[in-house]
Write a structure and sequence with these properties.
Jelly Rolls; 2 domains; elongated
Length: 184
Amino acid sequence: MALSTIEAVSLDRILLEHDPINSDWIISGTPVARAAQWSASKDGSTTTHVWDCTKGRFRWYFHADEIVHIMEGSVTVEAEGVAKRTLTVGDAALFRAGSWSEWHVEDYVRKHAILSVPLHPTVSLGVRALRRVGKVFSPRPRPRILKAEALKAETRNAEALKAKALKAETQKAELTMDDAAISM
């Protein structure tokens, strides 16, 4: 099945399904979480989700890099070596794959999340190498070439203006000489 070029949704209308938090991770309260995935990249390495949760405090493990954007409510997050931070509507944060953090939901939070599974280090090295090779053999003009071409065009324009000014001065001098010859 072919994927659509554009996938668009109204994030506040996505129907969420029960998505319980691991009971071993709950520190206090009885948080109830729900979630829904609404899109994925062609290779499945990146997915987008909407997630919400009621009041509670819990630890959370990030198996993938996760960028969150708070849509409603708030959550206070903290991690070892990182200052406590309250995320409110409009805030965004990145949680790195393989990390733990503590989440404290005072009342309710709803977030949009983009998850990206990191590549294995050897695959990542290959991807970076291919990108560098692609830049070398890219058919697109490089910015420094564009700068050189712009500089040449600017120089041509300056030379044309100088030539035009010189021509005007020459014509003015010729008119002055003609006026002087008539006066004699």
